[in-house]
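Help: read this over?
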Amino acid sequence: MVDTQNRSRALNTAHSFIVQAPAGSGKTTLLTQRFLALLKTVNKPEEILAVTFTKKAAAEMYERVAHALDMSLVEEPSCDHEKSTYLLAKEAVQHLNKLGLDLNQIKNNLNIKTIDSLAYSIAYLLPLTSNNGCCLSVTDQHFSLYEEAVEELFNEYFTGKESYSYMSPIFETFNNDTTAIKNMFVSLLAKREQWLEGVFRANQYDIENEIGDASKLQRAIEKNIRKSLGSEVNFKEIVEYALYTLGYDESDVSAQNETFWSATCAIFLTEDNKVRKTLTKKQGFPAQSDFSSKADKQRAKEIKEKGISFLSQLSERVELTEELIAIKYLSKSKDGDKALQAVILKTLPTLVAILHNLFNAKNACDFTHVSLSALYGLGSEDDISDILLQKDMSITHLLVDEFQDTSYLQFNLLTKLTSGWEPDSNTVFIVGDPMQSIYQFRGSEVGLFLHVIENGFSELSLEYIQLQSNFRSSKALVDDFNQIFKAVFPSESSIVRSAITYAPSSPSKTDSIAKPITLIKSQSIEEEISSVVDYVKKIRTQYSSDTIGILIPTRTYANKLTKVLRDNGVSFISSQLTSISEEQAVLDLLSLWFSLTNTTDNLSWFSLLYSPLIGLNSQEIYDIKQSLDDGMNVGEYIIANLNELPDYNINFRNKSRLLKRLINNRYRVSDRRWLEYSWSLLKGDMYYSTKQKSIECIYKLLECRETKSLFSDREKLLEHIDSIYQQADNHKQTQVEILTIHKSKGLEFDHVIIPFSDKNPKRHFNDMYINKQLVYDGSVYDLFAFKEAASDLTPVYKFLKRHFSTLEANEKVRLFYVAMTRARRSLMLSGSSDESSKIANTYFDWTKDFIEPIISNPSHQDHEVSSKRKVIIEPFSDLESEYIHLSEADTIDAENKEWQALYLTGSETLLNRNEEAILGTVIHKLLENYGNIYHESIFSESSILQELKTHPSISSSMLPRLLNIVKEHLLKISNCPIGKWILTQYPVSKCEWRLPKANSQFYEECVIDRYFEDSEKRWIVDYKTAYVETEMEKHVQQLQTYLKVLHRFNLNNVSALIYFTDPTAPISAFKVDEKAGRLSPLISVT
């Protein structure tokens, strides 16, 4: 076997190791064997501490070790692999028996913990030095405590206390938007372990000098560039020549100061941070013809050649390019940015102190508090080993599983715990796979794995071992994985960028399916789901006993997939895919609670009336709304007018009387009993008989002391239950499991299916504050950055935003690796992208670029369960264009393209989110005004300006730009044939028509932008100011909803259009096929 020697070496208990164990390499077995090997060297089992990161992993490790100890009492196995574990366990038991411990005592004292459990133990043992205030009761309601802490901070400021007056710049900068500021601080408290230490250090600096380590990092990068380039090219000579040519002062050039480095970045990098292809006079490299003397011509030629040679090197060295980009941003940091940072950083310790006091007052805290308490406790002791010995917590050996998922806080905790360890008597054994590091959102730092390989752990040097064998996947799969991931993973590792190179595996299995990877390309989500279900059914037919794992990158389409699977009779287990907050039964139960506890809650009352508990339809609800007097709420109206209520149905009045009795009798029993009784009387348990598990979850929340307070705030309650997932459909004979890729880690299946692989999870990087601890060249740098407005990004913020984007891109590769390597026998990926609109860097891009050439290789034979591949088509290529026939007087020559020239030369400047929202609101309002009075003055510059000025967030500097953009949009619709036809004055028309939405879980209104009736049919138009290909499906669903609402009001023969005012839209209008849910382009009108 390939890894025999390495595995044997890893069991040497006299040495410390860090082991890189890729997917399927038998990592848990090696950990178990190492633990057993250490047991025969210690006096007590608890001297060995094994740490992992989840309860499930800790339980599995304990089960493995305990089972091996039990098996040591039976006959020796014949299998070589099992024999090794057996002998280690037998020796361990014999050794500990001699010390007076029997088997049960050994198993009861195995010291296997999660990292959170370890932190709790330390904080509990060291209550004074850990500064935990005796508060270690962890609650899952920590966000409400964060909010309470921020509100207390605001209260201190707004009551005018002098000691809090320094906070004024925060509110001034963010235009007194207390909600946004509150959200920022709550978010900061939730991840305070990432910034707390750095903030305390930052507050030691003078505001006028430096906040954080941005300038220090910049200087370190500059030094490293000089060092790395010194022996390769005459970097200084090239840059100095260019700067002298460009007219820079000699002092800037010789000193290599900020001006020097800023200019250097401009010479070699384009505005969008790409390495230049060549060098011109603009960068300081004039042509030879610009010089008169032969010597100057020759000098210009030589320097330019050296410069172009350097560009060639730069384009091949990603790390060096990234360092120059970092200098470009870090060198632009301004004093104003630092002043605002200083105020916020001064506020944060105060906020943390308030939170700490709340924890003590409420005897509740979060896991971060426990971990920080443990870290402070260990950090305050001179000799940690002696203290732990006194507390009967002596540890001589440490094992860490899944080390690639370690955060800085956890790493610091473990290194503090092992502080002062000697290589002669202590060992550390670390196992993990950096290629499977996928928890960046939880603070994990894969760069720590690389850091320990290079620098060791605490005071110990660790020997690096890399396993290669893959015991899980077939030979054909492993061979394909090696080809695919060698191309997809970064070409070089980097601690700074969390980049990991691919380590190839060696297959241990010889059995193999000839063609183990299948791609299915579909034209729509519905077709893709149908293909996936067909594929599942084929596998179940051919391999009835095999397991199937359906791993989804995003939950967006999970409900659709599970529905089609159920409709096709495919039983499955689903894990944490759908929150109970999405179940109608739960929403109706909550509507009942909030209605009966608050007669002024109109939203809940309308939802209750529409639910099957009461059973009114949309028209009846609309009639009730029209009956309300000014200021009256629907609940108050119903309770006060029981005898005068419209007799909509035979039960409405009786149910209304029942609601009144329930309200009057609320406090006679417990809240749970009262709600349960109310639900039963209204026959909720009959209507939702299959949802009793989810209903019971709500009852338990109402009973629990910690969560009962949530039932006074709908928004907080919904946010809480959003994290409670529907219980799995457990079937003993089910071999199909659906779960997210993150949840699949550590599992394996005979066949793996990755649907929706062309869909990227939506992640919007829009935090007002970001921070990062960067490890660069062996040192740690704390960086802080704040957004001062919606579009005002500081240089450090831009740098960190780019950095986080790089980290996310690298982690996405690793997530792909985790998903694919769960497969034992076969793998299928599906997507429904088209070539013209695919999102870059999705899994499907990689399948197209790297997997398709592999599975198309003639050496691969057809896989027996592979489906017929569907080919991507151009959008709308199979649809006929829709033509609208108008009267002869209204006929427009659709072939006349002169109107296009009026707007196609518009502004190309990108809008930020705030400007996009304002643009949409203003254009919709102007089109509404025009549709009501049909006068051209509505589109005048003065009218547009007047409308823009109604938005307080628009500054005077923004007005000219937004004015031009609005004019471009209006110019398009008023000059293009379809736009003119839509804006024609018809006998029957409406703008911004509000109607009660049908089939809604809450009472809602839909707003139709434009409705009109011509000589042939009725039309509705939805205006869109931005053409986004990926939003088309959402637009179709929106218009389908509008059409259903109109049908309920007996308005039939209605056609729906989407019209894009966006001048750059490739197609201006689309007609919706209501039944098929598809779009066809509206090319022209005749």
About this structure: The two ends are 76 Å apart (CA to CA).
